[in-house]
Amino acid sequence: LFMNGKADWRFVIVGDGKDRTIYEDIVKRQHISDVSFVGWQDSLPYYLMSSIFIMVSVTEGFPMTLMEAKQCGCVPIAFDSFEAVHDVIENGVDGYIVKNNDNDRYIDCLISLMESDCLRSNMAKNGIESAQKFSVDKIAQEWYDYYKRL
């Protein structure tokens, strides 16, 4: 999600899948404005212009999209449906982890981020800082230290 101006949010769906046409039809039938389906794209420009990253995947390995979003200052919200989400998001500090299938709580988290510039900004800053633990330099140093201990 990103803002065009004060309280003028746009919902951009990057990626594709077998159900895309179903979702496009729902948006069209319901006359939902400010929703775009852009298909498979280089995601970096979308992270950079976005404020909130909504992940609704139920299964993931290591969720690179969450890490990429945080590195760009985009606050993530994800369901607690895969273990690695806890490695990437510190709930309430640099994003939100919502109990699996708790759609009401997910929506509450989204609304709170959309309504509070201060909350969103603080979480984005925390996310950029916490993403550093996965930097190439940090990981390389950890491997080097591990190797030296062997």
Describe the structure.
Helices cover about 45% and strands about 20% of the residues. The model has no long low-confidence stretch (mean pLDDT about 90). With about 150 residues, the protein is of the alpha/beta class. The strands form two sheets. It has a three-stranded mixed beta sheet, with helices on one face. It has a three-stranded parallel beta sheet with strand order 4-5-6, with helices on both faces. The chain is globular. The N and C termini lie far apart (about 45 Å).
β-strand number: 6
What separation lies between the terminal Cα atoms? 46 Å
Q: Can you summarize the main beta sheet?
A: 3 strands, mixed
List low-pLDDT spans: none
Strand content: 15-25%
What's the mean pLDDT score? 88
Q: Roughly what percent helix?
A: 40-55%
Number of continuous helical runs: 7
* Broad shape: globular
- Secondary structure class reads alpha/beta
Report the radius of gyration as a whole number of Å: 17 Å
The run of helices and strands is EEHEHEHEHEHHH
User: Strand order of the main beta sheet, please?
Assistant: 1-2-3
List keywords for this structure.
alpha/beta; three-stranded mixed β-sheet; three-stranded parallel β-sheet; 6 strands; single chain; globular; 150 residues; 7 helices; 46% helix
Compact summary:
This protein has 150 residues and is an alpha/beta fold. It contains seven helices and six strands, in the order ββαβαβαβαβααα.
Mind sketching the topology for me?
Layout: E1 2-5, E2 8-14, H1 20-29, E3 35-39, H2 44-49, E4 52-55, H3 64-71, E5 75-80, H4 85-88, E6 96-99, H5 103-115, H6 117-130, H7 136-149
Parallel strand pairs: 2-3, 4-5, 5-6
Antiparallel strand pairs: 1-2
